[in-house]
Amino acid sequence: MNHNRILHEDNDIIVCHKPAGIATQTARVGQADMVSEITNYLASKEGAAGKSPCVGVVHRLDQPVEGILVFAKNRQAAANLSRQAAGEEMKKEYLALICGKDMPRTGELTDYLLKDGKTNVSRVVPPEVKGAKQARLSYEMLREDKERQIALVKICLHTGRHHQIRVQMANAGMPLLGDHKYADETALALSEKLGVRETALCAYRLAFTHPKTGKRMQFEIKPEGAAFQKFTYKIS
Length: 236
What we know:
The protein is α+β, with helices and mostly antiparallel strands.
């Protein structure tokens, strides 16, 4: 575990900056994931010998997505943070590069999503479909390049569904650059033209209440992804 990736640590929680390409948690043998890295880091610390560290997963990020994650170091903290993550007490904000014609500068999206566990894909379905879950987000355009039809947006999640941002934005005609799972052919062609190969999404800000002290905590990072480095400061 790279110590530079640790944004905060105390007896109850550890907050980390997950790079793109690493899973939050995986059962695949030989594949790196955040839970394994944090477990090894905690086990190697002085005084941890002989103990099996608790690393509680309370929320996740898709493997291609960079961003901030908080993990619990005991069961009490895990239960508290899981409750916050299930509601809106834990505030999750993202930066994304999207593309499309005549995109509204602000908006709120409410859809019903159904996850297909076999294909690991979610899709928008009518609300009466069995197993469908409501998904809500709001977004605000920060910068726009009308000529290339791309924009940098800030997205606030109000629910935490599987692939939610990628599905909802694509369904609204504003797919993410570099998203090979949900973007349409036009967006993929534009991504290829611009040299964007990774999903242009970063969980850049996370706020929650500390499970023990009750203090409100907020963390923020700057995206490392090549797409953001190329375009964030060029979009006017």
